[in-house]
Design brief:
By secondary structure, the chain is an all-alpha fold. The protein is built from 17 helices and no strands. Helix 8 packs antiparallel against helix 9, helix 9 packs across helix 10 and helix 10 runs antiparallel to helix 15. The protein is globular, with a radius of gyration of 21 Å.
Length: 393
């Protein structure tokens, strides 16, 4: 098999650049107005967007790490796609850091007068205090950015030097990143999301958030691979067998997400402790119950049914549609987790919720395309490339 893999990179049309800039400006303008007119709702939706973008980037980075440590040669031909998407770790991290000045608008535990009269919040002040919260946020972002940079730069350096040792070096980085990610993402999800309702807690909240973010990252990677394949960039290199494996991962982690969701719900329902059940009671009344149903429908039922068969996993068009369903489902999931404290009566949707989403879409697409355009789309000198090009699932 002889294929020219040198100097293959994505080019961005002027029209695409203009459209992305328009989306970014429109979204940022809406956010700016929202910070004046409806600051709390806009900040909560901005938290959702920053966490979403960061989670997609981390999901892609974790996929790179898992493929590396497991020596999975099949993914070599598509590796530059998750590497490009992983660049969103930087963008999402910046958003989370920029939200630090808004801590008093988002988190009730940040108010001394509230804490002073609440025994539960007083018992958590060793962890939930503004200085330590800010330090942890910066530390999370820096650690994730460092490992993402190491994984991506080492991979791209191999295109220049061709050193086999770089593959082994990345495997060590990947193993260390998985350990660091497992510890820090669990804590970050509790800091940024669970502490929005500091009287409630769940011991599996971190793994629940991981399942959603990783599933969304897989969906964006799959969309990227299919779009590039359809536009001729990866048509020679990506087979239906690669799509089949991506479909299997989507199917597996969609089911894993449902397993963790149900595990969390079942344990809280069965124990029937008021301090725990209030979380789900709030999300099953006043219109939030509809979002609970949609959450399960979009994140599990539709993907499960559509991707159950082998034909479904290998169908490019169906796979693309399911990925968009999953991404919408992940937004519903985060909205369902984040917004109830700010909308106690019923869920509301307006420009203040839409503007951050538009900004987030512009960020992800712009960052990903820019990263793809700066490197060879195929890791031409990776020792496992030929295995990937001849892959049969």
């Amino acid at each position: 098999m002889t294929m020219n893999t040198d100097h293959l990179s994505v080019t961005i049309s002027r029209r695409t650049k203009w459209l992305l800039q328009l989306l970014a400006v429109a979204g940022l303008a809406g956010v700016a107005i929202g910070l004046v007119v409806a600051p709390q709702r806009t900040l909560a939706s901005s938290l959702l967007t920053g966490y979403y973008v960061l989670g997609v980037g981390l999901g892609a980075a974790l996929l790179i790490a898992l493929v590396s440590v497991s020596n999975a040669g099949w993914a070599t031909a598509i590796r530059r796609v998750p590497e490009a998407i992983a660049s969103n770790v930087y963008a999402g991290g910046v958003v989370m850091i920029l939200l630090l000045p808004a801590v008093h608008q988002l988190y009730e535990w940040s108010h001394a007068d509230v804490v002073s009269g609440d025994a539960v919040l007083q018992s958590k002040t060793f962890w939930l205090n503004v200085p330590f919260f800010s330090v942890r946020t910066v530390a999370y972002v820096l650690l994730w950015s460092l490992f993402t940079a190491l994984l991506v730069r080492t991979s791209r350096r191999q295109d220049v030097t061709g050193e086999v040792n770089l593959t082994l070096r990345n495997r060590r980085y990947a193993g260390l990143f998985i350990v660091v990610f497992a510890l820090t993402f669990w804590m970050a999800s509790m800091d940024w999301l669970m502490s929005l309702e500091p009287h409630w807690y769940s011991t599996i909240y971190g793994i629940y958030n991981f399942s959603g973010s990783f599933l969304a990252g897989l969906a964006v990677v799959t969309i990227g691979v299919i779009v590039l394949r359809r536009n001729g960039y990866l048509r020679e290199f990506v087979r239906e067998d690669h799509l089949h494996d991506l479909g299997r991962l989507l199917f597996a982690f969609s089911t894993f997400w449902m397993y963790i969701w149900f595990s969390q719900y079942l344990l809280i329902w069965y124990a029937n402790i008021p301090e725990e059940t209030i979380y789900f009671i709030k999300r099953e009344t006043a219109g939030w119950g509809t979002l609970t149903i949609l959450n399960i429908l979009f994140n599990w039922v539709i993907p499960f049914v559509a991707l159950m068969s082998q034909a479904g996993k290998r169908n490019e068009g169906l796979l693309l549609k399911i990925c968009f369903v999953i991404l919408l489902g992940h937004w519903i999931d985060l909205f369902w987790m984040i917004l109830p404290p700010f909308m106690p009566d019923a869920p509301q949707f307006s420009i203040w919720e839409v503007a951050p989403v538009v900004t987030g879409v512009a960020i992800v697409v712009t960052v990903t395309i820019r990263s793809l355009s700066r490197a060879n789309l195929i890791p031409a000198k990776d020792p496992m490339l030929m295995e990937s090009l001849g892959y049969h699932a």
